[in-house]
Amino acid sequence: MGKTKKKSSFYATVLRYVGEYKGAAIITPVFMIGEVIMEMIVPLLMASIIDKGVNAGDMGHIVRIGLWMVVAAGCGLFFGLGGAWMGARASTGLAKNLRSAEFAHIQKFSFANIDHFGVSSLITRMTTDVTNIQNAFQMILRMGFRAPASLLIAMSMAFFINRRLTSIYLVAVVVLAVFLLIVMRRAMKYFREVFDRYDELNRSVQENVSGIRTVKAFVREDYENDRFRRAAVNVYTLFVRAEKTVVTNMPVMMGSVYVCILLLSWFGAKMIVVGDLTTGELMSLLTYCMTILMNLMMLSMLFVMFTMSQASMDRIAQVLDEEITLTNPEEPDRVVPDGSIRFDHVSFSYNDNAELPVLNDICLEIQSGETIGIIGGTGSSKSSLVNLIPRLYDVSSGAVYVGGKDVREYDLDTLRNEVAVVLQKNVLFSGTVYENLRWGNPDATDEECREACRLACADEFISQLPDGYNTYIEQGGTNVSGGQRQRLCIARALLKNPKILILDDSTSAVDTATDAKIQAAFREKIPGTTRLIIAQRISSVEHADRILVMDEGRVNGFDTHERLLESNEIYRDVYESQISGSGDFDKGGED
């Protein structure tokens, strides 16, 4: 299982991935501070209009200062729009870079790394979590600079007008700041937990949608609805708990605002009567009071966003900092000499803490160009065995050799280009038949694609499709049958022209006659390719050069069909049961 390096902080990760949008990120706070300065000038101009214009009856002064107010408001609008646009550019750019970095890093993951997180969790981290970071970053760039700047400037202006009255909401600010910190600390634990619940929600959706045919076939809609409802309720419950904690901010804030307004009005009116304060100055103080407390409320919202985003950033950092379990050596070999395979006392476990290994002391030697059949019951670790050849996993002990070299000495891309694997779960992607085939070789010609399909016995059904090789395949290959999907995947693998071809129960959905045609085509057309064929039907492997019998992670027998019938009890029992019509080795066909 993968290990995560020391966790990156929110700001370190942002600085690392904001990339080419640093300019927008830097200029956004400049625009926001400019907007704040313009807003803070307006109350002073308003006070001047009241005291020197309205009270003195000077219409010229009112017009002049009024024009300056229009200029200040226009400049504030310009700065506000500029800050909004640049902040949106920086935050969406950060989200784009984070998603790209996550996706690129996930492409390097080994199967063990993917097992560590789970598919649904990785999807949540690339969607919901990144969106939280995007929203929080935009809030930080705009409100994170605007609110403190507005708070400080408004406080300074208020002190400049009257220090005694300003002390009223200075006390309120301190009290509210302490209250806010306490609330945010309590809410943080809920926000951290809620995203794990999002993983469960996504897992329910993903499994239901991908397996919708099975759900309907077994009439499990009610069960799936109940399962999804439970996951949704878990998310709802945690968000309610967090919001119940956070929502106390609003009444406390508003209560503080009203108390400050009442106290300012009471003491300000008394000071106006004795001549220590003018009406315009009181109006300015009330405006600054509202500005200070409203910006403190904005800061509380920012803290909520930051708390949520910190939990999301921790989850994203876990993906970005995940150490890849399979890496290239310092000077990798980039040539695979041939298709020979050797297992040298190989043991393997998916989990380092497992009590028993999945594969135990496997010793095998396969010559280049041989056809090897592999059979065994469900759980006998047939797939685990072949997954070690292209180094989809690393051995726990011992070594696997391909072309006479330890697979850990090869460049991963080189090795996997020479070892084509058709897995148990056949996956096709949205696109035409040609586009799916060219996953095996992007440069393959139309004729090469057709030849590979002829070898895989896929050409016969493709020619009957509406648009032939240009027919569009739906995501997951839902508009073709299981057997057709298998044959397309085999053809795709053949286009790689590999030195080793692994068919992991890849003809289970085709009839026996078609299976025989595919095996005969392989013997005739690709005799130099080493072929490993995992199958449940002995008829699929009886003509192989040798057959490997697996039992509980160990080699139970490895010889020709005829000799295994004489010497291997498991093989003989299965053969006799299938000859008598009892069926395949077993119906599961998977480890």
Explain how this protein is built.
This protein is of the alpha/beta class and 591 residues long. Helix content is 62%, strand content 10%. It contains 20 helices and 12 strands. The strands form 3 sheets. A 6-stranded mixed β-sheet has the order 6-9-10-3-11-12. Strands 2-1-4-5 form a 4-stranded antiparallel β-sheet, with no helix packed on it. It has a two-stranded antiparallel ribbon with strand order 7-8. It is elongated, with a radius of gyration of 35 Å.
- What shape does the CA trace take? elongated
Please describe the biggest sheet, giving its number of strands, its sense, and whether it closes into a barrel: 6 strands, mixed
Q: Please list the strands of the largest sheet in the order they lie side by side.
A: 6-9-10-3-11-12
- The termini sit apart by 19 Å
pLDDT < 50 runs, ≥5 residues: 585-591
Q: How many individual helices? A: 20
